[in-house]
């Protein structure tokens, strides 16, 4: 098990602080505690200290918290376990390693055998005033070795100046001790210092004991039950006098933080563009380049009119574009210069072949991997941002391994994005969590921590979760599946409410107040859309089937089936209410994006509702404040959506909602844009044919029903019976199932 370097600095600037995480143990940063050590809460559950396993610990700085500042609860427990460690005299310290000899015989570990209660400690006394020479600092250090897995070839510097020099040397993989005999002599503490050496040593000992006690028992070198750690660890036979330059390189290479200075993101879409814009905004010292093969899209990112709409995105882009944020079609050069490459390309559902309609098509991921390895040299981190099936990183790594070249080291991470369109900038600036998955190897963990350091510019450390790669990939699919499941669950109840006279909003409020359930994603609607939910659930279904888990596959397939049912049920309700026919009738469709505050139409319920109504011969007049006319035409012109010249004959794109509603038989609200609440419905009613219907597929008009009925509207809404003047009708047949995922030859998006 490889060693990890932990460096803690006790000064107000805390620059630099290098953290490493071991074995997926989550811990909170001690930054605030180091700024004010007496405030460290060692007894409460709110502070999780670093758990170290076979690791090197470097403590630097001076003026550490006196032992009296350690809470009594921890002190008493510590004393009861390790009362022999309370003394800080030289003789007692040497008693910790009785088999290791004394300073007079060079304190070697040739025959060191771990004993019960021993701890991995490196303790330093302050050097003489004005002594800032690094080698002198090393020579003035006390080194106490207690665990076989602890590397003795490490030192403690008692001044920030020396510590910074040490870190710089480590980063350059140079020796911090050019004299091979510099640790041969270990002089005792000097008594000439103004700082109480006893207090410093006692405080450091307490901190080290606490870190040891907080380890999981199965990870400790000694489990405090008397069972010693293995004395055969290869580290335990290294002499303190053996500190050659090549040894330092060998032991510390890969454990020092890799600093990311340049980022390349392949894919300038709904994830790559906003994500990298926020990173550039929050990390002004990092150069971020977003690349794409779509020249018109890149031109739009470089123009005043961005290719996508997100509240707050334009301000973020304009604040750093041309400074440390760039958009380009020069993919190869951006990859060559980058320390970190994000892969943020589309992973659509396959439309043909094996897994058609369910499996993810990874052709764009594969193309990115091949281009990255072709244009890379040295050390580089490659990170999945796209939502991918489990073990997609393994496919990327196989491509890298098959095309490797000398001095090339590509590390693959998974860093899925959990932003929601419409609130993307808010979600990126204040995320619920940041998830990073990587290999459980020293190199893999080095890459993980390098990416953690980028997010730590603005994300609290406790919100950054690290896992293995596969857990990260599956977590993204599972998160979207759970959210889709909640929507389908409340939509199923909406059908029951319409049949019984209950109100689904009241039911949702009642169950949402139960803390075990919560009130999020309990909004009944015409169905969920977007690029992720349906695609990811279908991907999960396919994965379960491939792994011979048919019951699990059927469970998640029902989430999609319920969503399809909700859309067909809503379209049937429109047709039934309009006297069982909509042929040649004008229907106003308000909203075409899959949700408000975005221009994204992928898997939008409006596409499905429009398709069903066009099949019945309805004339559609469509208005959306953020979706361009060209995109609506492209979406409705897919081979499976419309036939022949249906779009040209039956679809009109309106410039405002009043124009769309002029002369209409019914108004259908498919997107919950806030502006639809503020329309002059009396004006709209006057221009419509009577009886005038409103079908509220998003319940944006809740609270206005009485007013609208007074005007003369017939109201139909999801999950509630509203109209008391319902016109009798003969039920029509069930609308046949339809899915955009099954369509071949899908036309490209605008």
UniProtKB/TrEMBL annotation:
Residues bound to NAD(+): 267-272, 292, 297, 345-349, 386-387, 421, 532-535, 602
Entry binding sites for substrate: 417-421, 476-480, 516, 523-529, 594-595, 698
Keywords: Allosteric enzyme, Carbohydrate metabolism, NAD, Oxidoreductase
Pathway membership: Nucleotide-sugar biosynthesis; UDP-alpha-D-glucuronate biosynthesis; UDP-alpha-D-glucuronate from UDP-alpha-D-glucose: step 1/1
Catalytic activity, as annotated: UDP-alpha-D-glucose + 2 NAD(+) + H2O = UDP-alpha-D-glucuronate + 2 NADH + 3 H(+)
Domain UDP-glucose/GDP-mannose dehydrogenase C-terminal: 588-703
Top-level enzyme category: oxidoreductase
Family stated for the protein in its record: Belongs to the UDP-glucose/GDP-mannose dehydrogenase family.
Function summary: Catalyzes the formation of UDP-alpha-D-glucuronate, a constituent of complex glycosaminoglycans. Required for the biosynthesis of chondroitin sulfate and heparan sulfate. Required for embryonic development via its role in the biosynthesis of glycosaminoglycans. Required for proper brain and neuronal development.
Self-association state and partner proteins as the record states: Homohexamer.
Protein's name in the database: UDP-glucose 6-dehydrogenase
Organism listed in the record: Bos mutus
């Amino acid at each position: 098990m490889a060693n990890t370097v932990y460096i803690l600095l006790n000064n107000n600037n805390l620059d630099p602080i290098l953290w490493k995480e071991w074995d997926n143990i989550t811990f909170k940063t001690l930054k605030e505690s180091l700024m004010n050590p007496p405030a460290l809460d060692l007894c409460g559950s709110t502070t999780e200290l670093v758990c170290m396993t076979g690791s090197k610990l470097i403590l630097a700085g001076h003026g550490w918290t006196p032992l009296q500042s350690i809470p009594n609860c921890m002190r008493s427990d510590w004393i009861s376990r390790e009362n022999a460690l309370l003394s800080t005299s030289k003789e007692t310290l040497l008693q910790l390693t009785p088999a290791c000899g004394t300073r007079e015989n060079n304190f070697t570990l040739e025959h060191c055998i771990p004993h019960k209660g021993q701890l991995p400690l490196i303790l330093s006394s302050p050097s003489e005033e004005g002594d800032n020479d690094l080698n002198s600092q090393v020579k003035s250090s006390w080194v106490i070795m207690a665990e076989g897995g602890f590397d003795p070839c490490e030192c403690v510097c008692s001044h920030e100046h020396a510590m910074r020099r040490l870190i710089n040397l480590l980063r350059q993989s140079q020796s911090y001790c050019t004299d091979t005999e510099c640790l041969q002599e270990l002089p005792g503490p000097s008594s000439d210092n103004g700082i109480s050496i006893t207090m410093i040593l006692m405080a450091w000992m307490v901190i080290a004991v606490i870190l040891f006690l907080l380890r999981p028992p199965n990870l400790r070198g000694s489990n405090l039950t008397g069972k010693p750690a293995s004395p055969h660890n290869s580290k335990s036979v290294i002499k303190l006098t053996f500190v050659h330059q090549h040894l330092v390189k060998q032991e510390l290479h890969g454990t020092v933080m890799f600093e990311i200075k340049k980022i390349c993101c392949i894919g300038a879409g709904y994830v790559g563009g906003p994500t990298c814009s926020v990173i550039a905004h929050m990390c002004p010292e990092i150069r971020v380049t977003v690349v794409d093969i779509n020249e018109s899209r890149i031109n739009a990112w470089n123009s005043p009119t961005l290719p996508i709409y997100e509240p707050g995105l334009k301000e973020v882009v304009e604040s750093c574009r041309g400074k440390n944020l760039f958009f380009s079609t020069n993919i190869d050069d951006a990859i060559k210069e980058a320390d970190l490459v994000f892969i943020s390309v589309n992973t659509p559902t396959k439309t043909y072949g094996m897994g058609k309609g369910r499996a993810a098509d990874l052709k764009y991921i594969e193309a990115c991997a091949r281009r990255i390895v072709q244009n890379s040299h040295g050390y580089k981190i490659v990170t999945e941002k796209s939502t991918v099936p489990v073990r997609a990183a393994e496919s990327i790594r196989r491509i890298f391994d098959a095309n490797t070249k000398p001095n090339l080291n590509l590390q693959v991470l998974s860093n899925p994005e959990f932003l929601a369109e419409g609130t993307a900038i808010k979600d990126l600036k204040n995320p619920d969590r940041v998830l990073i998955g990587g290999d459980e190897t020293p190199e893999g963990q080095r890459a993980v921590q390098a990416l953690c350091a980028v997010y730590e510019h603005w994300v609290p450390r406790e919100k950054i979760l690290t896992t293995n790669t596969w857990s990260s990939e599956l977590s993204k699919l599972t998160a979207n599946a759970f959210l889709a499941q909640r929507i389908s669950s409340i939509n199923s109840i909406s059908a029951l409410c319409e049949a019984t006279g209950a109100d689904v909003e009241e039911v949702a409020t009642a169950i949402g107040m139960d803390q075990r359930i919560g009130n999020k994603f309990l909004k009944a609607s015409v169905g969920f859309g977007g690029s992720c939910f349906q695609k990811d659930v279908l991907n999960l279904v396919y994965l379960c089937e491939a792994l011979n888990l048919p019951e699990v596959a059927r469970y998640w397939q029902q989430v999609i089936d319920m969503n399809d049912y909700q859309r067909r049920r809503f379209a049937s309700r429109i047709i039934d209410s309009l006297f069982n026919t909509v042929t040649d009738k004008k229907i106003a469709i308000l909203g075409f994006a899959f949700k408000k505050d975005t221009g994204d139409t992928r898997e939008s319920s409006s596409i499905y509702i429009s398709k069903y109504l066009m099949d019945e011969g309805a004339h559609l007049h469509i208005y959306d404040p953020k979706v361009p006319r060209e995109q609506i035409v492209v979406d409705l012109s897919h081979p499976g959506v419309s036939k022949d010249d249906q779009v040209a004959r039956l679809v009109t794109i309106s410039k405002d909602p009043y124009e769309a509603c002029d002369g209409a038989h019914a108004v259908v609200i498919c997107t919950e844009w806030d502006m639809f609440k503020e329309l002059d419905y009396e004006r709209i009613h006057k221009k419509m044919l009577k009886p005038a219907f409103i079908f509220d597929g998003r319940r944006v008009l809740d609270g206005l029903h009485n007013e609208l009925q007074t005007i003369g509207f017939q109201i139909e809404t999801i999950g509630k019976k509203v109209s008391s003047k319902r016109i009798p009708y003969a039920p029509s047949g069930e609308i046949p199932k339809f899915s955009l995922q099954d369509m071949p030859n899908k036309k490209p998006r605008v």
